[in-house]
Specification:
The complex is a heterodimer. By secondary structure, chain A is mainly beta. Chain A has a single domain (19-233), classed as Aromatic compound dioxygenase (Protocatechuate 3,4-Dioxygenase, subunit A). Chain A is 7% helix and 24% strand. Chain A has 3 helices and 12 strands, in the order βαββββββββαβββα. Chain A has helices at 37-40, 190-194, 226-233; strands at residues 31-32, 69-78, 88-93, 118-122, 128-134, 139-141, 147-149, 152-157, 166-171, 199-200, 211-214, 217-219. In chain A, strands 2, 5, 10, 11 and 12 form a 5-stranded mixed β-sheet that branches. Chain A starts with 30 loop residues before the first strand and ends with a helix. Chain B is an all-beta fold. Chain B has a single domain, classed as Protocatechuate 3,4-Dioxygenase, subunit A (Sandwich). Chain B contains no helices and 10 strands. Chain B has strands at residues 33-40, 50-56, 80-84, 90-95, 107-114, 121-126, 150-152, 155-157, 160-161, 171-172. In chain B, the strands form 2 sheets. In chain B, strands 1, 4, 7, 8 and 9 form a 5-stranded mixed β-sheet that branches. Chain B has a 4-stranded antiparallel β-sheet with strand order 3-2-5-6, with no helix packed on it. Chain B is globular, with a radius of gyration of 16 Å. Chain B starts with 32 loop residues before the first strand and ends with a strand. The mean pLDDT of chain B is 95. Classes of the chains: A mainly beta, B mainly beta. Strand 1 of chain A pairs parallel with strand 10 (171-172) of chain B.
């Protein structure tokens, strides 16, 4: 069994500050689904999904993208503190000017022909992942008057079970745009909100090359099983 | 202390879709069924910026996972499907019918992600109203039909209504 997250960890689907939730959040209460085999298993997606340079978003074109080169790294862990190895991590993001390479993004900041803003990698045996990318820019949106999204990178992870599937956003430390952002603030618990903010990581900066941020992702933990209990007792 | 969920946002389609995402089995696989559907919002409008993911047992009721010790797996069966909705809110998955699992009727677990959904919502596709299934029978009979796929050309239709009249039953996993 996978443990339920503490109240306040995840945003309520009905979050009026984020206007797009209005017609998209279910009105009925969700039905409790006892975790069965379908839920405690899940896709273990591996090597076949990766191409060359998928973890280096600055090396996917002949030229280099504009912007501040950064290393983004961290660990994928479960709630018991155990690393999740060999697990697919997918990211997507805006370019240095805050523009997504998407036909529906109309923000008048130029597309960068050398930046798709899409990355994939697998965690290693200790659950570690690393991307090289460009620090994304903030961008305006239509949610409320003079609304701006804080700079962020979208992360998609699977863990080891259907119950652990998570899509989140990684933010950057001390962003002055946090206070007015209804998506960031949709997470009720301020401590949980803080877990979406990466840390500047001097130790992983590369001289004359890149700054660095670290971002650990924690998925739901598992109930101790009798087998694990025996191991703990040793 | 889990990391919170956030929305996939409006531009999920640059990052999440895979060219082979909808084909859980390759085109032309004997016995393959196509599941098609439309995602609707509370105003009855199609949702063009959603993503559907599916996870299921193979036709013998086995999961491609070490926590299922039940038996050997089919080749060329990924068990996992992923499809973004198109401009009309439509998605499709090409797969094999899942087998029954001990104590449960055949079903497919579904995650729905979208702009405006701060957390995925989870539902199940069933292929018949089987009162012996413990999950199906826990659902209000008046809403149970939202979980039953309807036969359609070369497969099934499973529409997803996020809100309002005939709102799909979503599960807390």
């Amino acid at each position: 069994m996978y443990l339920r997250d503490a109240p306040g960890t995840h945003p309520p689907l009905d979050s009026p500050g984020y206007k797009s939730t209005k017609l998209r959040h279910p009105l009925q209460r969700p039905v409790l689904l006892p975790q069965k085999l379908t839920e405690i298993t899940g896709p273990l997606l591996g090597e076949g999904r990766l191409g060359a340079n998928d973890n280096d978003l600055t090396a996917q074109h002949a030229g280099e993208p504009q912007g501040q080169r950064i290393i983004v790294h961290g660990r994928l862990l479960d709630g018991n503190g155990r690393p999740v190895p060999n697990s697919l991590v997918e990211i997507w993001q805006a370019n240095a000017g805050g523009r997504y390479n998407h036909v529906r993004d109309r923000w008048p900041s130029p597309v960068d022909p050398n930046f798709d803003g899409v990355g994939r990698t697998l965690t290693d045996a200790e659950g570690r992942y690393t991307f090289t990318t460009i620090k994304p820019g903030a961008y305006p949106w239509q949610n409320h008057d003079n609304a701006w999204r804080p700079a962020h990178i979208h992360f998609s992870v699977f863990g080891r079970s259907f119950t652990q599937r998570l899509v989140t956003q990684m933010y950057f430390p001390d962003d002055p745009l946090f206070d007015q952002d209804p998506i960031f603030n949709s997470v009720p618990d301020p401590k949980a909100r803080a877990r979406m903010i990466s840390s500047f990581d001097w130790s992983r900066t590369v001289p004359n090359w890149a700054l660095a941020y670290s971002f650990d992702i924690v998925l739901r933990g598992r109930d101790a099983t009798p087998f694990e209990q025996e191991v703990d007792d040793e | 202390m889990s990391t919170p969920s956030q929305t996939v946002g409006p531009f999920l389609s640059i990052g999440l879709p895979w060219a082979d995402g909808p084909t859980v089995v390759p085109e032309g696989t004997p016995g393959a069924i196509r599941i098609v559907g439309t995602v609707f919002d509370g105003a009855g409008q199609p949702v063009p910026d959603a993503l559907i993911e599916t996870w299921q047992a193979d036709p013998d009721g086995h999961f491609d996972h070490p926590d299922d010790p039940s038996g050997p797996l089919r080749k060329e069966f990924r068990a996992f499907g992923r499809c973004p909705t198109d401009d009309d809110g439509n998605y499709w998955i090409l797969t094999l019918l899942p087998g029954a699992i001990p104590g449960q009727a055949p079903h497919i677990d579904v995650s729905v992600f979208a702009r405006g959904l701060l957390h995925r919502v989870v539902t199940r596709i069933y292929f018949a109203d089987d009162p012996s299934d413990p999950v199906l029978s826990s659902v209000d009979p008046g809403r149970r039909r939202t979980l039953i796929a309807q036969p359609a050309d070369d497969g099934y239709r499973f529409d997803i209504r996020l809100q309002g009249d005939n709102e799909t039953v979503f599960f807390d996993v």
